[in-house]
Amino acid sequence: MRSAPDDIEIRLQYAQCCYESLHVEAAAAALAGCCELRNITSAQLATLALLLLNLGEARGAAEAAARAGADLQPAPTTLLRLAQVQERSNRVADARETLQRLEALPGAAGLGADLELLKAQIDLREHRYAAAIAQFSALAAQCPEPDRRHLYLFPLAKALDAGQHHEEAWRCLVEAHQAQQLYLARTNPEAAGVREPPLLITRYGCSSADLAAWDEAGAPAAAASPVFVVAFPRSGTTLLEQMLDAHPALVSMDEQPFLQQAIDRITDLGITYPAALARLTPGQVEDVREYYWSLARQKVQLAPGQRLIDKNPLNLLRLPAIHRLFPNARILLAIRHPCDVVLSCFMQHFRSPEFAVLCRDLPTLARGYRRAFDFWYAQLPLLRPTVREVRYEALVADFAGQATGIMDFLGLKLVPAQLEPAAHALARGFISTPSYAQVVEPVHQRAIGRWQPYAPWFGDALAPLQPFCARWGYQAGAASEQEVR
């Protein structure tokens, strides 16, 4: 790329490699300024738009897609990528229309599996489950590389689940994870060789002696601190985030690793995290805090009086950093039936190697869940942060009432737009999380007890989850009235 910095095709291919290998910053750097390059074709613009969208650069993606869409004689690849961008941006009707234009072109058949995958994804979004199942099944059966079959098996399992074919969905999920482990063995053998992800961050907590020496001079007030939304993934945080973001005084930035990058800044100072955070001087704390804000400003611009929503579920494991940098921050802990959470995680195609290994089977995943919340509840009485628990079941059963209570906790008044999170999410377009398709639907209770048809396969996964079912009043069997209060 250094030899031919203006060669757009090289930059696109390099960025795609970086994205697939999780080198996100390198991918973004490779794509910087691509829209301004001369002689860029509409097909390349459409590919650029999809890459930018996958990297969370929605504004740049929209610009590239608009330019690609202006081509009056688009190539099949152009329309394919544009339809993929539209589906990923929750513009499903537009994606269907673009797909129909694409299928009318003579060269459409040459797109092969990419076209069939797009058709299956759109059918799934439009609740055409039988058609989606047939297409995903064919793609998985015809895939010549066993390790890449997971790309089709995960969405196939979703379609089977949506069609109430639970036993087939389960078998498909097991096969999907087996294929993904083969993929990891080829692309990331170090991660694939881990018997069980240790979640090392959960092994190290704060001590009362160190906490007693923390100097919180100059700490920002709650109104000048982020609002942190934490949880175990798949606990309803995206719905919660959209409700909050609809308030004019709150701004979300999608899931970002900025708190972990702030922790890295602390350890770069030679400070042991989190055991020796008292060693941070007020000046060092302020420097790390400003570093965090500098990262956030790259994603969002806060107007005077606005507060940042930092929604990253696994910041659950970074409570010491939250409290050291922003001791007055308000924290929302999203809670959902543990069995529903681990099943939903098991159904997801996570790109992160560590999380893919963690989710490879239900018992491993359940033990990870247990370690995460054991850590949280060990640190909670030491740090005593200002936390409100948000039950998913209660939120969807009484959305207005729960939303009002959450906003009272934040010191703000509920506004009408917050009662329509689906409309807000649809207006935003791109949602970075796996919930992007669900969050544009009206609030519903269909996901409560989703795990119950899969109960026969939980087996050893139930024991690690039982303490938290008991703590929060959930049953490990049929849903009780207590779970939706």
Provide an overview of this structure:
With 485 residues, this protein is mainly alpha-helical. The chain has three domains: 1-84 and 92-104; 112-193, Serine Threonine Protein Phosphatase 5, Tetratricopeptide repeat; 213-484, 3-Layer(aba) Sandwich (Rossmann fold), CATH 3.40.50. The protein is 53% helix and 5% strand. It has helices at 8-20, 24-31, 42-54, 58-69, 76-88, 92-103, 113-125, 129-142, 150-162, 166-187, 189-192, 208-212, 237-245, 258-268, 282-297, 319-325, 338-346, 353-358, 362-383, 392-397, 399-409, 421-428, 462-472; strands at residues 227-230, 250-252, 307-311, 330-335, 386-391. A five-stranded parallel β-sheet has the order 2-3-1-4-5.
Write a short abstract of this structure.
The chain is mainly α. It is built from 23 helices and 5 strands.
